[in-house]
Amino acid sequence: MPVPLLDLSAQYRPIRGQIAKAIDAVLDDQRFILGPPVERFEREVAASCNVAHAVGVASGSDALLLALMALNVSPGDEVITTPYTFFATGGAIARLSAKAVFVDIDPATYNIAPDQIEGKITPRTKVIMPVHLFGQCADMDPILEIADRHKIPVIEDAAQAIGATYKGRQAGSMGIFGCFSFFPSKNLGAAGDGGMVTTQDTALAEKVRILRVHGSKPKYYHSLLGINSRLDAIQAAILSVKLPYLSEWSEKRAENARFYNQQFSGMKNGVRPLRVVTPYIAPHNQSIYNQYVLRVKDRDALLEHLKKNGIGCEIYYPVPLHLQPCFSEWKGKEGDFPQSEKAALETIALTDSSPAASSIPSESTPRILAGAKL
Ligand SMILES: *Cc1c(COP(=O)(O)O)cnc(C)c1O
């Protein structure tokens, strides 16, 4: 039986009635852009992330872009971030003609290495942007301490980490801004694109609200140069139905991860133990396991073996940002960030972090994995 990487229909089935009702209500109302369902969902996200303000936008990518815009990031400014992340982290910086200054990752968590940040700070450093990769928060205390000392704001790319906590604090509540994505495969997924910017700062929240509607307030009076980036009412209505289930779904993913960790540790393949490294979650972190990521030396052989046997898997991410051709102006080259480059070669995201109704992931996956010739 094939095991998909992510089976969203299992999550959808039990709540389809509720979702249909929510969509119908928006269709009856015929107001599709922003409006009451978005305002309601913004309040719900603000409460669940423990922040004062949440602003619904069109995507996680736009959330990053708008947060940078709200801090006046301009051509030539530098933004410190990690090269081992989804494209959008770097894309948002490049869109503003700013420069991403990369810092390598901690090989255990795959998140930005805090002890390498300070050496990269220059007078042009405008923002520090850690990413909470795979559902686990970056090590925020040392990052916030450095940022505070240099008076540089921190934007959290929390696109993969809604509901994750660091020392009991919610992802997206620790920096000046938190940026979330509701892309369907995120832990809280819409039926399309969607995103959210969170902040404790009332003036900055208002600025993002203005920037998302072309910089106009009142309507047709433009004090700022904004963009068109709003959350749809239908998406917000769907997300409001799903939000109450989020912690339960994420706990199920964590349960699946524990099952796999147990199955994969000490796994024997003939005479040799299979050297797979299971995810390391720092003790102060609660991960939402947006991805369950193994590290293995002969990754491509494992990838081929799993694919052949119908086990869904994916590489997140095969090329670190400093080696992406479209970012060549930042002059990154092979060898610049050895841990990121190594992770790009050695990691494989595995089913089943799926939020399926069953808390037990595929039993066949450990057996098939054990058959890999590594
Ligand atoms: C998904 C993601 C984004 C972008 O979100 P979209 O909603 O797809 O635009 C940004 N950063 C990271 C780390 C992501 O995983």
Describe the structure.
With 374 residues, this protein is an alpha+beta fold. It has two domains: 10-102 and 111-244, Aspartate Aminotransferase, domain 2, CATH 3.40.640.10; 245-370, Aspartate Aminotransferase, domain 1 (Alpha-Beta Complex), CATH 3.90.1150.10. It contains twelve helices and 16 strands. Helix 2 (16-29) runs antiparallel to helix 8 (233-242) and helix 4 crosses helix 7. It starts with 7 loop residues before the first helix and ends with a helix. Residues 356-360 have low confidence and may be disordered. The site of pyridoxal-5'-phosphate has 15 residues, from helix 4 and helix 5. Pyridoxal-5'-phosphate binds next to helix 4 and helix 5.
- Tell me the CATH superfamily of the largest domain: Type I PLP-dependent aspartate aminotransferase-like (Major domain)
Q: Which series of helices and strands comes N to C?
A: HHHEHEHEEHEEEEEHHHEEEEEHEHEH
Q: Helix fraction? A: 25-40%
Q: Could you name the CATH topology of the largest domain?
A: Aspartate Aminotransferase, domain 2
Largest β sheet strand count, sense and barrel closure: 4 strands, mixed
* Low-pLDDT windows of residues: 356-360
How many strands in all?
16
How many individual helices? Answer: 12
Question: Any idea of the CATH class of the largest domain?
Answer: Alpha Beta
Distance between the termini: 23 Å
